[in-house]
Amino acid sequence: MRALSIRIQQHGDPSVLEVTESELPSPAVGEVLIRQSAAGVNFIDTYHRSGLYPIALPGGLGVEAAGVVEAIGAGVHEFKPGDRVAYAGGAPGAYASHRIMPAARVVPVPAPISEEVAAATLLRGMTAQYLLKRTFKVESGMTVLIHAAAGGVGQIACQWARALGARVIGTVGNADKAALAARWCDLVIDYSHEDVAAQVRAFTAGRGVPVVYDGVGAATFEASLDSLAPRGMLVSFGNASGPVPPFSPGILAQKGSLFLTRPTLGHYTLTRQELIDTAEDYFTAVSRGDVIAEVHQRYALADAAQAHRDLEARKTTGSTLLIP
């Protein structure tokens, strides 16, 4: 069987993405062959492409996709041909028409969830799950700050936090995204011209928030620290605007004995059971309407470079798919 995929020979801008065709071997012991319906496009893919997070070259891109099992290797008992499955995380290579994956890193897609929604949002949904429920447990009555509230993780995290009973402050970068985020935020702050920390303090009667979820990085780091209540936690889980510059740990003491963590999904899904539980919790939230998962952009697989350009130019909202 031959597969189409997007690969890079060197790190660089979106022009380094190439469409290639290759022969696929049969799945080995413990593996499944997936005919992919769609692959998700995430900011981490741009980090892998640019070299911010270097990958082995030549290599593929993409860490999330969904489709149907076409064949299984020896020793695979959890899946059979015809099963709908998805995966998120692990080695890049999801930008492809077919892919062989370790069965241990694949999860079943339940009947109420479309393959497109699974492919476009599983990574973000599982990220929101560990952020809100395990990195810092959001509880009813809390007020939380979530940056990039119109983005892929932001949309899911804001909706889910509200379903958990929290008041949600979301930040965005322009008026169009502010209108979108207003659907699931109690307060929306446009950080392109508003003082985030001042608005947060005003909304919380001067107290600040117990947690800030920051996937933006350099552009919002100072505002995140200044928005926290004493002993609050900054959860820095992404670098959409670039990495946070070096700083002295003493600033955490000066601003209120703050906590700082830099978590990753991989460390929260180390075991098979953790992976299954995280995915199931997200799919359940979608099924019961706590999270409305929407696909906002679709590109042909061959147009992956344009998808990256649009993502990096902040022209996208929510989730983006590549269709093989």
Can you characterise this structure?
- Pfam families: ADH_N, ADH_zinc_N.
- There is one protein chain.
- The chain has 324 residues and is α/β, with parallel strands linked by helices.
- It folds into two domains: 2-122 and 272-323, Medium-chain alcohol dehydrogenases, catalytic domain (Quinone Oxidoreductase, Chain A, domain 1); 140-262, NAD(P)-binding Rossmann-like Domain (Rossmann fold, 3-Layer(aba) Sandwich), CATH 3.40.50.
- Helix content is 30%, strand content 28%.
- The protein is built from ten helices and 16 strands.
- The protein has helices at 43-50, 115-135, 152-163, 175-181, 196-203, 221-226, 250-254, 265-268, 272-287, 304-312, and strands at 2-8, 18-23, 31-41, 59-60, 64-72, 84-88, 98-102, 107-108, 143-146, 167-172, 187-190, 209-214, 228-236, 259-261, 295-300, 319-323.
- Strands 3, 5, 6, 7, 8, 15 and 16 form a seven-stranded mixed β-sheet that branches. It has a six-stranded parallel β-sheet with strand order 11-10-9-12-13-14, with helices on both faces. Strands 2-1-4 form a three-stranded antiparallel β-sheet, with no helix packed on it.
- Helix 2 packs across helix 3 (152-163) and helix 2 (115-135) packs across helix 9.
- The longest helix is centred in the middle third of the chain and has 21 residues, at 115-135.
- The model has no long low-confidence stretch (mean pLDDT 95).
